[in-house]
Amino acid sequence: xxxxxxxxxxxxxxxxxxxxxxxxxxxxxxxxxxxxxxTNAGVSAANxxxxxxxxxxxxxxxxxxxxxxxxxxxxxxxxxxxxFTFFFILGISSTxxxxxxxxxxxxxxxxxxxxxxxxxxxxxxFYDAFLVxxxxxxxxxxxxxxxxxxxYIGSTIPFIISIAIIILSQSGTIPITTTTASxxxxxxxxxxxxxxxxxxxxxxxxxxxxEREPNPVINSFKRINQTFKEIRKYRALFLFxxxxxxYIDGVxxxxxxxxxxxxxxxxxxxNLLIIxxxxxxxxxxxxILYGRLAERFTGKIMLYVGIFIYIIVCIYAYxxxxxxxxxxxxxxxxTSQGGIQALSRSYFAQLVPKHKSNEFFGFYNIFGKFASxxxxxxxxxxxxxxxxxxxxxxxxxxxxxxxxxILAFVPVPKKELKPTS
Length: 421
Hints:
Layout: H1 6-27, H2 29-40, H3 45-74, H4 80-97, H5 106-129, H6 131-134, H7 140-171, H8 178-195, H9 198-203, H10 216-229, H11 235-264, H12 269-297, H13 299-318, H14 323-351, H15 357-386, H16 389-394, H17 397-407
Helix pairs in contact: 1-5, 1-7, 1-8, 2-3, 2-5, 3-4, 3-5, 3-10, 3-11, 3-15, 4-5, 4-8, 5-15, 7-8, 7-12, 7-14, 11-14, 11-15, 11-17, 12-13, 12-14, 13-14, 13-17
Main location: membrane
Domain Major facilitator superfamily (MFS) profile: 1-416
Subcellular location: Cell membrane
């Protein structure tokens, strides 16, 4: 494969930028910050984890309702970048605002977190759709995997800085509280996200589009309705989205709730941060490996591999008791979380009509987001009914099994078919 083009590299760098949000806000520092605030307010561990799950579900529901409409409108010439920029600015500004919310206002923290999640996920809808504009079908698996790999590598830098500030504050080495250190981490995330998004804003442009027409909003609704009516023409897309709906639900739930889960098991904040850091480092080469193996064995086979590993993760989580167990669980997740997301994105991009990329990535997002509602709710309800977070994580195994079964019926894109000897 030739070296990445300027446009491909600029697109990849947004993963480098946005992944700081994914690890510091979605996964590591903010959940711990919120859990501490909720605990100080007298909220039980199981209930605070459940409230976080409900919050994630609300945020994803809002975006899921908006995505296909926004995506369809953004297929018009020149609008994809504008929508991306709006959600990008919403995300970084609300992330920075987290630093100015009093630490005892745990409910206000969840509300602001909802806005940050909408900004981040909304920008990702259009970022993912830009893949068809910057690359070719033959290069998409590796370019998409490179993006996730860069994301894991890039996110470790602000993460290390944030961890160092928090640990030094806990030890008294620097004269600030742990609360202040966490708020500094939120500011670092916003700055990192903003600065390294510049290459995409400058160099990536919409190549495939629909010509502008009067009443774009009304016509966008008509196009969505027409797509639903013609869904039989896109059987492969529909089946893939259905499979994706189930298995990506489990993936996103494990990523977003892993820190709260570890906290409920009694793992210290310092250990959790270190484990998450190592997970990012290990995940980077495995994301690239998935992309290369997909070129040899097809993306579909490698998706099977990733789903199977996540089934093992869910089963193992049920018996998890010690910090060592959590380490093993985290390393299993690290081997596949980037690969399964990268190949899902590129597999879908190979199936969509390019001039309707935003519209179809809107559906891709709505399936992923509605799935992300079900997973956290499943964990939250199970945790509250049983009083045991382990049971909640174990319940996710059903989603992976159903997703794997449906994926078996998804046709392989023609370019991935291997010649028979």
